[in-house]
Design goal:
Pathway: Amino-acid biosynthesis; L-leucine biosynthesis; L-leucine from 3-methyl-2-oxobutanoate: step 1/4. With 387 residues, the protein is an alpha/beta fold. Helix content is 43%, strand content 14%. The chain has an 8-stranded parallel β-barrel, surrounded by 8 helices. Strands 1-10 form a two-stranded parallel ribbon. The chain has a two-stranded parallel sheet with strand order 11-12. Strand 11, helix 11 and strand 12 form a beta-alpha-beta unit. The longest helix has 16 residues. The radius of gyration is 25 Å and the shape is elongated. The termini are far apart. It binds 3-methyl-2-oxobutanoic acid and zinc ion.
Length: 387
Amino acid sequence: MTDKLIIFDTTLRDGEQSPGASMTKEEKVRIAKALEKLRVDVIEAGFPVASPGDFAAVQAVANTIKDSTVCGLARALDKDIDCAAEALKGAVSARIHTFIATSPVHMEMKLHMSPQQVLEQAVQAVKRARQYTDNVEFSPEDAGRSETDFLCRIIEAVINAGATTINIPDTVGYTLPDRFGKLMAELRERIPNSDRAIFSVHCHNDLGLAVANSLAAVMNGARQVECTINGLGERAGNAALEEVVMAVRTRQDVFTCHTDLDTTQILTCSRLVSNITGFPVQPNKAIVGANAFAHESGIHQDGVIKHRQTYEIMRAEEVGWHANRMVLGKHSGRNAFRERLKQINIEFESEEALNAAFARFKALADKKHEIYDDDLQALVTDTLTSE
Ligand code: KIV
Ligand code: ZN
């Protein structure tokens, strides 16, 4: 058996930070239930100190969810940590996630603190969180632009203070996969007590690299990935849960870990989050886009009809689609045309009749993006009556 990769979903926290994606308490609970059914390990339900509404939402999720750990975010401040602990009181399994920035630009320009002050505040925050729960996560915000020596020092100190998960965020989506993978490896190697914590990764998608960076970290020992449904999140979003999970599942020849997710729930979660937030899923989005398992070109359709693995690296059913989809359009071939007709119970008596119908189909496909079953019915009737 390979290592378990913990899936930490932050749709309800980082996802909600996406401009225009705020959710009500009831909506958060609905999504949390869907995530529980998907069997995510940790649900980050919100940032309790941010507003009374967010506090109530985290509390409601904590009181409802039984099979996933429920997490609340807190800055490295006593009042945030106390507030998160209060909101999480009803959880079967609770985690407090505390963070403070460690990059030179954040420490100097935002926090106006020296690295030593940041380190001391981080240690203090982790110790306080440990008074409430033994499940404490620490994030050095903007780790992707932080100095590695300082990261090593602060991470060693917070592990000694009781942090059980160390999350490495690429807060502004700045890193590149090769560099980020090496950073994960170096941290785990250089920090003397690194084996006492699980290393995690949290990547943003500003350069479209969130999933690639997350996977590079996993290849270098990260055993938790923080991600969101449909890649929702601050600015260009976070790593998309569905992409991370299916990459690990599909490429078991490369990854030495697995997830415990019920991947057949992925599409349901995607649709739910899209409906609640009003953020549509682009048709060509991997895994959950309408075209993710659709084939239009004749060569591809012919290949898939002969053997699905010719053009499919995973099965549509694995992620919750009923089946793959053959789209009849101008690139489609005779084989797919015949196959679709068969599925709707139309068979021609002669090859000539089929050829005549196929010629009409091609002419129509030049005018119309997609040919539906109704179009086929009309076209066949037309062919037969004009014979
Ligand atoms: O992007 C980030 O750095 C965060 C932290 C709070 C983990 O969301
Ligand atoms: Zn983030």
